[in-house]
Amino acid sequence: MGTIKLPQGEEKTRQVRAMFDAIAPRYELVNKLMTFGLDARWRRRAVGDLRLAPNSLVLDIAAGTGDFTRELIRQGHRAVATDISFGMLEAGRDVPERVQADASALPFCTASFDGITCGYALRNFTDLAATFDEMARVTRPGGRISLLEVAEPAGGLLRAGFRLWFRRIVPFIGSLVSDRAAYHYLPQSTAYLPEAEEIVRMLNRAGFSAVNHRRVMGGLSQQFLGTRSQ
To answer: Fold for domain 9-228?
Structure first.
């Protein structure tokens, strides 16, 4: 698989929006194939890790077709889905509250949410620091965030197997059932992602305390948890 030139700035925003509009119809199917259905388990745990009272109001950023949003509702929360891609939001028609927006300029009042979720999208934001600032702005003091992102196992056979799967087989599956260019972009987009320690520092600077990073299932995924500072 050849290396593609990754877009930057406004060009990245435009291409990411167009890409997710294109893959929206089969997005959930490819996710299940990519993760053998484990993504549902990871989201379920991530929502539980918010440790919020029932009926809390939670913003799902980069909600896509609404997998995370539906899990929030299943666990007794009120949820608002927001995504830059209208196509993704349109595909998630069973999600009751959907708002198209750029995560770095959220159209919500300060301290209006009890919590925030975000699944596998940090590498797709054009301005990650501004996005974390916005997460902090719209979260009430004491509110919680639970963010999932791709990761890579530290070493050994698991890492070798993951690289083969994520860099070779996933693009092939995506080419068969969805959009070829999008699923060749996916493994290379991890180059946008800062190291976990830097993401923790960025969240601290934005206004989150007690930020915890942990690897999920041997490093196949990773999670960031934090509390909005008082």
So the answer is: Rossmann fold (3.40.50)
Please report where in the chains the tokens 């092939």 appear, as a residue. 172
- The lowest-confidence range among 7-16, 135-144, 172-181, 215-224 is 172-181
**Phi, psi (rounded to 5 degrees) for 78:** -90, 135
Burial of 190 (0-12, 13-18, 19+ CB in 10 A): middle
Name the strand (E) or helix (H) holding 24: none
Determine the pLDDT at residue 4.
Answer: 61
Instruction: Determine the average pLDDT of the residues in 195-201.
Output: 97
- Confidence (pLDDT) at 3: 52
- Please, which pLDDT band fits residue 1 given cuts at 50, 70 and 90? very low
Residue 165 DSSP class: I
Q: Order of strands across the sheet with 78-83?
A: 98-100, 78-83, 57-61, 113-119, 139-150, 221-228, 208-216
Residues of the chain above pLDDT 70, percent: 96
Burial class of residue 166 in the structure, from the number of CB atoms within 10 Å of its CB (0-12 exposed, 13-18 middle, 19+ buried):
middle
d(CA 160, CA 146): 28
Burial of residue 157, with CB atoms counted within 10 A of its CB: 0-12 exposed, 13-18 middle, 19 or more buried: exposed
Q: Which 3 state secondary structure label does DSSP give 104?
A: coil
